[in-house]
Specification:
There is one protein chain. By secondary structure, this protein is an all-alpha fold. 65% of the residues lie in helices and 0% in strands. The protein has one domain. Helix 1 runs parallel beside helix 8 (143-169). It is globular and about 50 Å long.
Length: 172
């Protein structure tokens, strides 16, 4: 449940920072977050879990009002993580950007791993390279251990984003 809780806490901090009525995550069903707490033993189960996680990342919703003024959405925003980056770079102190960028890079790598797995993409080393970037170093991996590593890395990234948001909120 640690991964689902990390999303929940980040969402709560997001609402505190920006708008209590507009959540960071746009969820239409509870099955996807619930699946994050499941383990896996096979490649097929790993693929399902990482797909659920990537889908949840794609449901991050940043209100246009929080984007940098003058943002050309058609040219600069091609997904949820671009919008999140734009918003946080606009609002947070520039010294916070490296931590934000590292966290968002982890989330992007999860999405890239999912795309490599589902679409057989080999660009940039494919799934094996993306898993290495996330800290999984045995290929083919022990799928259960690989999922545990991916979850831990995402919890770390979400915690870092939450910390940077709280630092901004608490700055006079």
């Amino acid at each position: 449940m640690e991964l689902a809780e990390a999303f929940d806490v980040l969402d709560a901090v997001w609402r505190l920072a920006f708008d209590k009525k507009k959540p960071l995550l746009s969820l239409s069903m509870v099955a996807t977050p619930a699946a994050l707490s499941l383990g896996c033993a096979t490649r097929a189960e790993f693929e399902a879990r990482i797909s659920d996680l990537a889908d949840l990342i794609d449901r991050i919703k940043v209100d246009e009002a929080h984007l940098r003024p003058g943002t050309d959405k058609k040219k600069e925003i091609s997904g949820s993580l671009d919008a999140l980056t734009n918003c946080l770079h606009h609002h947070l102190d520039p010294v916070q950007r490296p931590a934000v960028d590292r966290a968002i890079k982890t989330l992007r790598t999860v999405r890239q791993a999912r795309n490599a797995e589902q679409h057989g993409l080999t660009e940039g080393g494919g799934l094996t390279a993306k898993l290495r970037d996330l800290g999984v170093h045995d290929a083919p991996p022990n799928w259960g251990a690989a999922w545990d590593v991916v979850r831990a890395r995402v919890v770390e990234a979400l915690t870092d984003l939450r910390h940077e948001l709280m630092t901004w909120v608490n700055t006079p």
